[in-house]
Amino acid sequence: MDSGGRPSVSGSSAERDEAHVRRRMGRIGAAAAARAAAAVAHGRAIARRIRQTPPPPGPFRPEFWRSPLRGPWLTSVFGLMLLIGIPLLFVTGLLSYAAYNPGLSPLNDKTPDKGVLGFYLFSWPTHPYWLYRLTQGVHVTLGVVLVPVLLAKLWSVIPKLFEWLPVRSVAHGLERLSLLMLVGGVIFEFVTGILNIQLYYVFPGSFYRLHFYGAWVFIAAFVVHVCLKLGRMTSALRSRSLSAELRTDLAHTRPEPPDPDGLVAAAPAPATMTRRGAVGMVGAGSLLFLVVTAGQSIGGWLRGTALLAPHNRDPGSGPNSFQINKSAAAVGVTPAVVGPTWRLEIHGHGPARVFTREQLLTMPQHAAALPIACVEGWSTDDQHWSGLRLADLAALAGMPDAGSVLVESLQPAGSFTKVVLRGNQVHDPRALLALRVNGADLSLDHGYPARVIVPANPGVNNTKWVHRLTFRT
Q: Which residues form the Oxidoreductase molybdopterin-binding domain (predicted)?
C-alpha cells in the first residue's frame, strides 16, 4: 500500500520482469541445447565417415598380413619368454647401477636427477667377490640372448602397430600410447645396450643416464601391458597343447581361429613353416647368441667362443695379458707422468703423507685373487694382485676407521677419473692399492704405477694410475 492507501504496482511489475527473464533464458537454453545436440550429431557423422573411410594401401589393410602362423598362441609363447626374461634383465640392471654406490658421492652418480627412482639403493657389498661379475654378466648376456625372442614377438604383433584407425576412443588412445612406449622403450634399451657393449655407443648424452631413464619408461609400459594382456595370454596358452604343436608337421599347420585382437591373418597364405619351426628357429638364435657372448663373462675355455665380445680379443702373452677397457694412450696417460717423479699422496687426519713407488714396495705387501668386471659384461679370470691394503693406508693417514676414500687418477679427463669408495670397501682385507699383478709390475695399460682393486667393484671404479687417496669420516 502507498501512503494514500492505494495498492502498490511495484510487486506485479517485478513479477512480470522475472517471468520475462525466465522465458528469455528458456529460449536461450533451448537454443544452446539445440546447438549442442547438432554439434554432437555432426561429430558422430564425422566419426562415422572416418570409420567408413577405407584404410590406406599397404600394411594398414588386414589382408596385407598373410602369415598363417600369427595368432594369440604363438604370440603368447614368445610373450611368456619375455615375461620371464625381462624382469630379470631389469633387476640386474638396477643392481648394476647400485654397484657404483651412487648415493655415496656425486662423483659416483651419473644420474643425479633420478629423484624417487633411486629408492632401492643400498650399500654395495664386497662379498662374494665375484658378485658384480655375476650380476652384470647375467644382465648383458641375457639382454643379447633375448634379442631373437624380442624380434619374434614384434613380428607376431606387428599388424597391431598398423591397425586402422590408429585411435578410436580415449581408452583406445591410451592403450596405443602404452604400446608405443612399450615398443619404443624396448627398442631403445636393447639398441643402446648392444651398442655400448660393442663399444660403438653413438647416442648423444651419457649412456648411464639414457639407459637408466629408458629402462624405467620401458618397465612402466611393460607392467601396464602385462596387466592388460595377462588374462588373454593365459587363455591363449591353454587353447593349444605345446606338445601337440611341436608334433604338427607342415601339411597339418593351420591358422588359429579368428581372435578379437586381430592377430590372425584375414586372408592367410599357405604355411611355409610350422609353429614348431618358428619356435625352434628363435630358440636356436638365442642359443647361438648365448654361445658367442657368455664366454666373455664365464671365462676359461669358453672365452674363445665369445665372438661378439670386443674384449675377448687375445690381449697377448705375459703376466699382464688380460683385458683392459681403455689403454693409457687412449685416455692421455703418457709414460712421462708416471715416471720417476710420480708420487702417491695420502690425505686424512694431519699432514699429507707422500711416497715414491719404491717406498711403497718396501712396506708389507698383501695379495688377493680378484677379477675385473665391467659394465659391458666382460670380465677377466681371477688375477693375482699384490700391494698395500687400503685399510693400512687409512691407518697411515691417521684414520683407521675411515668411512670412505676419494681416489684420484692421473687420467686427465673422463667420467671416472675420481671415484669414492665406501667404508666396507676400504676395510675389506682384499681391497688393495695394487702395485703388481701375477708376479710382475703393472703394465702402463693396467694402471702403472698403482691402481685400486676392490672385490665385487665395477671395473671403472677400480681406478688406474692413482696419485692421491683422501680418507674421510
A: 335-472
The CA–CA distances, whole Å, from 343 to 337, 352, 360, 434 equal: 10, 12, 10, 15
CATH of the domain at 443: 3.90.420.10
Predicted TM-score (pTM) of the model is 0.86
The DSSP code for 442 is P
Rounded Cα distance between 371 and 129, Å, is 8
Task: Assess contact for 396 and 404: CB atoms under 8 A.
Answer: no
Query: Is 397 inside any structural domain?
Result: yes
Q: Distance between CA atoms of 221 and 189, rounded to whole angstroms? A: 13
Query: pLDDT for 75-121, tens place per residue?
Result: 999 999 999 999 999 999 999 999 999 999 999 998 999 999 999 99
Give the pairing of strands 466-472 and 432-437: unpaired
pLDDT in tens, 129-183: 999 999 999 999 999 999 999 999 999 999 988 888 777 777 777 777 888 889 9
Backbone φ, ψ for residue 161 (5° rounding): -70, -20
CA-derived radius of gyration, the chain: 34
**How many CB atoms are closer than 10 A to CB 376?**
20
CA distance 178 to 192: 21
What is the domain extent for residue 218? 62-300
In a domain, 132, yes or no: yes
Looking at the structure, do residues 183 and 38 belong to the same domain, yes or no?
no
Residues 32, 114, single domain; the answer is: no
Chain-centroid distance of CA 142 in Å reads 12
Asked if the structure places residue 435 within a domain, the reply is: yes
β 440-441/404-409 pair status = unpaired
- Which residues, 6+ apart, have CB-to-CB distance to 242 below 8 Å? 77
DSSP state letters, 366-402: EEEEE--B-TTS-BPPPEEEEEEEHHHHHHHTT-TT-
Task: Return the axis-axis angle of helices 72-98 and 131-145, rounded to nearest 10°.
Answer: 150
Considering the domain boundaries, does residue 2 fall inside one?
A: yes
